Amino acid sequence: MPQPTRHVLVVTAPAASPATLLGTLLARAERGPAEFTLLVPGDDDGARGWLLEAVELLRANGLDVVGQLGPPDRERAVADAWDPREHDELLSAEP
């Protein structure tokens, strides 16, 4: 019987290495099917640009991922984004 797809909220920052982030999410995907929401706290152009590039890299490597900007405060961003009806896991991928 196939495993159900898990919905994973991934919290990271524009300071994170995209290659390290890719490795982290590929390792998670090896444990079973997953859809990822990449949450980046930050509301400036730098955070937005980093998020777009990261999502493109992750998708190019076969991951099912969407990006989401949150408030600059990490704790508030997680509190705003986390919904136990939508997410099964919370993964921190901070640098």
If you had to describe this structure to a student in words, what would you say it looks like?
This protein has three helices and four strands. It has one domain: Rossmann fold. With 95 residues, the chain is α/β, with parallel strands linked by helices. The protein has helices at 18-30, 45-60, 74-81, and strands spanning 6-11, 34-41, 64-70, 89-92.
Describe how the helices and strands are arranged.
Blueprint lengths: L5 E6 L6 H13 L3 E8 L3 H16 L3 E7 L3 H8 L7 E4 L3
Parallel strand pairs: 1-2, 1-4, 2-3
Structure keywords:
39% helix; four-stranded parallel sheet; single chain; 3 helices; 95 residues; alpha/beta; Rossmann fold
Compact description:
This protein has helices at residues 18-30, 45-60, 74-81, and strands at 6-11, 34-41, 64-70, 89-92.
What percentage of residues falls in helices of 4 or more residues? 25-40%
The level 1 CATH classification is Alpha Beta
**What's the helix count?**
3
How many distinct domains?
1
What is the alpha-carbon Rg in Å? 13 Å
Q: Might you state the CATH topology name? A: Rossmann fold
Round the mean pLDDT to the nearest integer and report it.
94
Distance between the termini: 36 Å
